[in-house]
Amino acid sequence: MQKLLYYLVFITLIFSCNKKKDIPKAGIAISFDDRFVKEWYQLRPLLKKYNAKCTFFITQPDSLSHDEVILLHQLQNEGNEIGCHGAIHVRSMYYIWDFSLEEYMKNEIFPALKTMKKQGFYPKTFAHPGGSQMWYSDRELLKHFTLLRDVSMKTRTLWDFDYTHEIEDIDEIFHQRDGTQKVNALLIDTSAKLTIEDIKKGLKRASEEGSVMMMFGHKPLSETTQKVNEYGFDIKFLEQILAESAKLNLKTYTMQELTNPL
Ligand SMILES: [Zn+2]
Predict the structure, then answer these.
(1) Contact criterion met (CB below 8 Å) for 181 and 149
(2) Which of 29, 83, 245, 250 is the most interior residue, by most CB within 10 Å?
(3) Which CATH number does 25-259 carry?
(4) pLDDT tens for residues 94-131?
(5) Which sequence spans correspond to the domains of the chain?
């Protein structure tokens, strides 16, 4: 009997040593901010073509029309995530300086959650308007959300100086699936002046290290409808990103999925 027991332990050990270590599946996570519901809805054929899921962060949900709520539900039913982007769209850091954290939660967060709940949405993730995370507000926000998303850019201007990074060197836009709840996504709007070559470098890194590259934009723009200085991303650029990701067999994640245990 004892021999049999030893034998069983031995076999178990062999199998557990041989078991391949689980490597998180490399991917991309794309999100869109504000309230361009009808324009986002038009992206469905493109998203379907690449079997891509996205996250839509809604601001001022109380201004959504009944039709827009229905469109968002359809997007959600198809595997996309509906996240929260605040009730009044303020930059948290400045708002808290001017008022208080309590006022911020009372005016920016709770009304948004309440309205969205009434509309049948239960947002789990939050995108900071204007990108202004700080530990003081984030500690409070994490009582209500599982993930907080901020903004990252290839080029940042500080005191009139431009600081440019190669995409593959911006560590903060790669989620390592390690439980990180405060994240940054790379802005892909036309204002960021990214090329597909930039993106390819980032995708290559994600693919090699098994991380998830996070990107975000605002309004989908096409050559025919785009107005001067409109803030948004080129739909063709999004298609290029999805096509390059597909070539590398990268999976698409919603923001909430990034916090799921592996
Ligand atoms: Zn916004």
Answers:
(1) no
(2) 29
(3) 3.20.20.370
(4) 999 999 999 999 999 999 999 999 999 999 999 999 87
(5) 25-259
